[in-house]
Amino acid sequence: MAARRLGRRADLAVATVALALAGWVTSGLWVGPNSRAITVNSSDQALFEWLLSYGAYALTHGENPLFTYLLNAPDGVNLAVNTSITVYAVIFAPLTFLIGPPATFLVILTLNLAGTGFAWYWLLSRLRPGSLGSGSAAGTTGRGTDDGPFVSSRLAAAVGGLFCGFAPAMVSHANAHLNWTAGWLVPIIVWRVLALRGRPGARPLAAGGWARNGLILGALVAGSFSIAAEGLFFTALACGVFLGVWALDRSRRAEVRDALPRLLRGLAVTAAVATTLLAYPLWLHFFGPQVFHGTGFDARVHSEDFLAYGAFPERSLAGVAGLGTGLAPNETEENSFFGVPLLVLTLACLVLLWRAASPGRRATLRALAVTGAVFTVLSWGPRLKFDGTITDIPLPYAPLAGAPIFNAALPARLAMVVTPIIGILLALAVDQLLRNAAPRRMLWAGAFAVALLPLIPVSLLTIEREPIPTFITSGAWRQHVSQGGVLAPVPFTLDVLPDGQRWQAHTFAHRQGEFAIPSGFFLGPGGPDGRGRIGPVPRATDGLLHEVARTGVVPPIDDTDRAAARADLNHWGAEAVVLADQVHGAKFPVDAEALLTATTELLGPPQRVVDVWLWPAPAGGW
């Protein structure tokens, strides 16, 4: 009883630390949840806010949560090929209606980080050695049986779990990626995959265990597909590599023969359940309207730099001290960035564990090491990138780059699989060291401090975001646009100009009704070689106004431009064109005065309505 109370206290302590760290990383947004944005990625933040509000709107209005005509009018957007986070949108719909999409986004982001750290701690402290091969330290009485946890020390589990939750990749993706920060899904899936094999000696064909576990895993797969499909794919690959290497070990052959029937039957149930639940999303994803194959992102650019593994991340103590390197494609993609000290420490931990391990534990260590090496090499992409320069040296990822599913993934993100492998090795090493003599523990404690202290995260950079116009928040827009009609924001909405979707998100969450917009921030068809692109293929008018927004320069506008603008607005079915006094640019400042001049040259003098400039559609159309 006393041990159980102590365990619950440890759980509470780890959960508290995880939540405090998550609050610290996101503290810049908590200052003003509805008015502040993440500096380096306010565009993705606006997108996820829109997805949360649209999902809540679809739930309460009986609309299709995976396809909408409210973006990219009149063609619509296939959200199944985008990161729809439908599960999050549905679960948090009451909160979205209560406190608004920006604040709900912040709550989920914070819980994602805290939940990931705690979930890995929970797995490490509860997982039984029989799940990964029995045997801990050779010659240790009471250790290495199937009766104790994989990591016997809660402190060791906490070290590994908190590292996984707040590793450089997680903090980097906390720059607005609700999908990639949902790392808590990974240990839960791993737990259920390992549960499929059952306990050694169990009846191979006993349906209760593998059927129940397959059902649970199938439901988890379906939910994970909604939240982070790319992460689910990487998790499946990592489980496959790990289990494959582990199963090939000679010391595990009897266990493999014993567990294989249950595992295969459980996976069959998993596939059946997941396919049933995902039948429509998968059809829409691969065969529905507005689909594409592959993304517009260059795999050579979005691959991990060879030197990035030993570099320090920007939002860490080392980074703010000036040791950041800028080796990532952008601030949200620091997928490794462990630093040389941690790499050295990880190798030392592996050697320490290997020397003390039984054959069963060595099979696990070998599988971890091989999986880490495979994903490290794959993360380097099709061509080796060294210190920011893409070389001509081909790598094993090259033949995979055009394969289905791989062509929609970014190879650099495969490095994220290495994070939990390092976390597991750190936890195992701490567990081992706590049984060693005090002088040796102190030496290792110093090594852990040198490796981990530079990676302690600092808070994300945030900025004040331009307010949503009163014209939108007051509902005045309904006097100028019919229910479901098209409102064209100037400049037209894109990833770098997200205001139109922010306006929509507000109207959805405050139940004001809905209007459609041309363009939008989404992935859709129209990219090179049949691949996807961000937003639609631009037409003359949105292209012209985008350049004005980007440069602040109004080009000469003639009757040809005016005729093209009228044709474009008729194509979109726009009932009103609206320009706010302040426009948010995610990557550059926007000159609203230049946009007012250019739009007036195109469409004539506007009306002043509340706090926006408005050009209503003429009675007979544009």
How would you describe what is shown here?
By secondary structure, the protein is α+β, with helices and mostly antiparallel strands. It folds into two domains: 2-27 and 100-455, no CATH class; 32-95 and 466-622, no CATH class. It contains 23 helices and twelve strands. It has helices at 2-25, 27-30, 42-61, 86-91, 93-99, 101-126, 129-132, 154-165, 168-173, 185-195, 207-247, 253-277, 279-287, 317-323, 340-356, 359-379, 418-433, 438-452, 470-473, 499-509, 540-551, 559-572, 592-603; strands at 36-38, 67-68, 77-78, 383-386, 389-394, 462-464, 486-490, 523-525, 532-534, 574-580, 607-609, 612-616. Strands 7-10-12-11 form a four-stranded mixed β-sheet. Helix 1 runs parallel beside helix 8, helix 3 packs across helix 5 and helix 8 (154-165) runs antiparallel to helix 17 (418-433). The protein starts with a helix and ends in a 6-residue tail after the last strand.
Major sheet description: 4 strands, mixed
Q: How many alpha or pi helices?
A: 23
Whole-number tally of structural domains? 2
**Main sheet strand line-up:** 7-10-12-11
Topology:
Blueprint: H1 2-25, H2 27-30, E1 36-38, H3 42-61, E2 67-68, E3 77-78, H4 86-91, H5 93-99, H6 101-126, H7 129-132, H8 154-165, H9 168-173, H10 185-195, H11 207-247, H12 253-277, H13 279-287, H14 317-323, H15 340-356, H16 359-379, E4 383-386, E5 389-394, H17 418-433, H18 438-452, E6 462-464, H19 470-473, E7 486-490, H20 499-509, E8 523-525, E9 532-534, H21 540-551, H22 559-572, E10 574-580, H23 592-603, E11 607-609, E12 612-616
Parallel strand pairs: 7-10
Antiparallel strand pairs: 1-6, 2-3, 4-5, 8-9, 10-12, 11-12
